[in-house]
Amino acid sequence: MTTRTVGAGHGWKWIVQGVNVGRSNPRAVYGATAIVALLALIPNVLQAIAQVAFGLDASTQVMLIGATSLVSIIVYPLLIAGVLHVIDAAEHGRPAQPTDLFAVFTGGNAGRLIGFGVLMGALYIATFYALVSAFGDGVVDWYMQVLTISQEMSAQTGPSTPPDLPLPPAGIGPLMALAIFFGVYYATVYAIGLGQVALGGRPVLQAFTDGLGGALRNVLPVVVAAAIAMAGGFALMLAFAMVVTIISVVASLVHPGLAALLVLPLYLILLLILYIVMFGAMYAMWRDVCGPQDDASTGGPTPGTGSPDNSRIEL
């Protein structure tokens, strides 16, 4: 058996350890996370540029989103695995630097990481198609209408009356509930399985099986972690919205463009915090469910302390 069952309290511990991750080597962990966060913004920037430059309609924009998502399925497992290696090195006191995350691109494990990402991507797409087919009658048409209206509003330059948005179809409630359920479960499978490939050296199918089993064996801590993450994320976004509103009102008295100039750094900082906590919690989850027995039994190295080890990161 390669997976373990942990108590519900570990859900809280995963979030706390996610907050504390990298304290022993903040330059490496925070730097690697910042690189991934910036790279993750590239698809959104390209989509925005394409929309402004070519005035894409709703269907073309959806196709562009789909194309960038396919690229992300291949690239993101490598980037996330690189961050996990940096975190693992920092937590065990091994030397590490931010650019060590790119070592996985040339390592012998790259093919398995890509394979795991493709497998999970196929599972996401198949599940989405099945849910929409069963419960999403009219959801796609409604989404396209909302997307078209939002594009028309963004293209307008002067003041205008907000248009009436179409009412969502009746089946969107069950669809959203099932989407959240499968989203949380698959995110857990992804965290455990990718950790197994990146740090545990497991083949793709075995890591995938470990992820499926590990997620089912640890439903309670996963639910606790998801509830805390959702509540904390909501509170954080609410506080961020309040700060942005205050800055926008004050900055608009000086110059309309000053608000965007001041808000952008805050947005990037918020994004970095979310990525740090996410990757840290992901590492803590893998370590407790599938990691080395010594680390799991002791809760791993105390975040921020590490352990003396002069070896380099072995990928």
UniProtKB/TrEMBL annotation:
Residues 297-308 have a biased composition (Low complexity). The chain crosses the membrane at residues 28-50, 62-87, 113-135, 175-199, 219-251, 257-277. It comes from the Bacteria. Keywords: Membrane, Transmembrane, Transmembrane helix. The keyword Protein transport does not apply. Residues 295-315 are annotated as: Disordered. This is Uncharacterized protein. It comes from Luteimonas fraxinea.
